[in-house]
Amino acid sequence: MTVLDDRTLNRATLARQLLLDRADMPVLDAVGHLGGLQAQEPQEPFIGLWSRLRAFTPSALSDLLVRRSVARTHLMRRTVHLVTAEDALAWRARHDPMLRQRVLGTYRRELDGVDLDELAAAGRAIMADGEPRSMAELTRALADRWPQRQPRALGEMLVAALLPMAQLPPRGLWRTKAGVRNVLLSTWLGREIDPPAVGGSDPVGQALVRRYLAAFGPAASADLRAWCGLAGLPAAIAAIREELVTFRDERGRELLDLPDAPRPDPGTPAPVRFLPAFDNAILGYHDRSRIVDDDHRGLSVAGARVVLVDGRVGATWTVEAGTVLVTPLRRFSRADRTDAAEQARALALFLSDGESDRVRIAASTD
């Protein structure tokens, strides 16, 4: 079986993630191709798409959200993702058991003895009027029914698991700060979510495998699970295994892939790219060694914004008073500093709507 080293996997990841060459692709198609963008920080998807698409304009993404072509909802790993409306409706039921278990993992003691079906029915009855509500407003409406329960636990279980919800604009619009207001996903998108498959089949699981590999492959089944948080996908993999090709990585893990997906030459140059907080190009793997050193693995989990240099995490970045500040994690060559400065200036202009191109790059570390 062919062994793919980390550099080969890195270039494949960059190509699939639209980070090797910026793509000429409609914004909606890009969101769909990527399987959504992690979006608990509302402005970060704009940065992720700016790094991936040519001539990206923030209004294009804002318009998609207002027109309900994309939705902000709890999905993979119980995190807020920005996904196409079609994917939100198709995927949500498949994620329901995982979402329940993840909320229980945090609030099991607080929810002990609460009938979750009863809680879901009560929450759905309140939300049936179609009025958007914050989590606090929803739990206040339930206070008489569960007076001894912690409102936060009830609210998290309802909003993140029991009731498929959409977070409404203006939250998630470009350069806009707004609190979370929820409405039922079916109300917002105009139809019910797709029901779970019957008879033991798992077409959604099989679709998730294909979609994941298209955007993240080659990858191991553990990587797939790290991305979506779902157990039970081995059966979906088995059902489509004949469609797939297999490799091994340098640690001996079996890697799955789509036969015709891009696997560029490992010598392909990789441009500097600025990634937003919690970007799935890093978080979408259990083994992240293809893109980040173990010493820096925790940066993205902690919400650091990172810079890819030669395809790997080589710096972090922040913005202060309109200036993009870059802090190298290793020694930069002169060419690295030049390329990073050029991309940082372009990013500063993007983030400031053309008002600032100020950049400061700290001294390289050994």
Q: Mean pLDDT, rounded to whole units?
A: 95
Q: Structural class of the secondary elements? A: alpha+beta
Q: Count the beta strands.
A: 13
Overall shape: it is: globular
How much of the sequence lies in strands comes to 15-25%
The main pleated sheet reads as:
5 strands, mixed
Portion in helices: 40-55%
Descriptive notes:
The protein has 366 residues and is an alpha+beta fold. The protein has helices at 6-16, 27-33, 44-50, 58-66, 85-111, 116-127, 135-141, 151-162, 185-189, 203-216, 221-228, 234-240, 280-283, 298-301, 334-351; strands at 3-4, 37-38, 70-74, 80-84, 165-167, 182-184, 245-249, 254-257, 273-275, 305-309, 312-320, 323-328, 359-361. Helix 7 (135-141) crosses helix 8 (151-162). The radius of gyration is 21 Å and the shape is globular. The protein starts with a strand and ends in a 5-residue tail after the last strand. The mean pLDDT is 95.
Question: In a nutshell, what does this entry contain?
Answer:
The chain has 366 residues and is an alpha+beta fold. It has helices spanning 6-16, 27-33, 44-50, 58-66, 85-111, 116-127, 135-141, 151-162, 185-189, 203-216, 221-228, 234-240, 280-283, 298-301, 334-351; strands at 3-4, 37-38, 70-74, 80-84, 165-167, 182-184, 245-249, 254-257, 273-275, 305-309, 312-320, 323-328, 359-361.
